[in-house]
Amino acid sequence: MSELRLTHIGGPTVLIELDGWRLLTDPTFDPPGRRYSFGWGSSSRKLTGPAIAATEVGPIDAVLLSHDHHDDNLDDAGRALLPSAGCVVTTASGARRLGGSVRGLEPWGSTSLEAPGRPAIEITATPCRHGPPGLGFVYGDVIGFALRWEGQEHGALWISGDTVLFDGVREVAGRVPVDVALLHLGSVQFGVSGPLRYTLNAREGVELCRLIQPRIAIQVHYEGWSHFREGREAVEREFARAPEVVRDRIRWLPIGTTQEIDQLR
Fold first, then answer.
1. What's the pLDDT score for residue 114?
2. For strand 143-149 and strand 156-159, is the pairing parallel, antiparallel, or unpaired?
3. In CATH, what number does 4-264 get?
């Protein structure tokens, strides 16, 4: 049986350690205080810094980058880390922008990580829609990731990526048995676009857990930025009202602390 450890560094950034592999999601390591423009009049201020500095995170075998064009998923310090990673996996359009040996995936495309003495990891891109329908030209391409390897007993490790609830995400329930889910919540909104929302809110998180039925659901991407409209307190309130079959699956990772997944079961 494989030993899986997760460290929530902050925002969308999670260190995944598995049988010698060290993977990093959406690296964001800039200090707090700066305001970032996301285009089309939208912006956000970073409120908290990472729990672990980029210089202290250690060697990274692969970066799983849901998208490269928003600073709350890839900031300057995170971008500076990319060349030192063994590989980077992101959207097909992001791979063209980043260049080099970056691996680009369309939804449901796959690639693999292989190294002597370690289990091969199959990485499959899952669909995301980073906002309302018809505005893809505004928010761009995004993917999630399903990770599978030999020795998994209950299904994949799935990272939702920045998405709202839509049919593409619902499709994951029928195609990928999920053991551990990392859900990007936050209910992102911008004043310039009023009530339009660009990531899962807590209510959608409950519905997604009901559909996917992971053994463990872990919340990330809910703190540290001014455009997150729902923090942990709001998420906890919504999940407290959820059916018991959903509530029993919810876990929180103390930010900056490495957690063995077997201890959360």
1. 97
2. antiparallel
3. 3.60.15.10
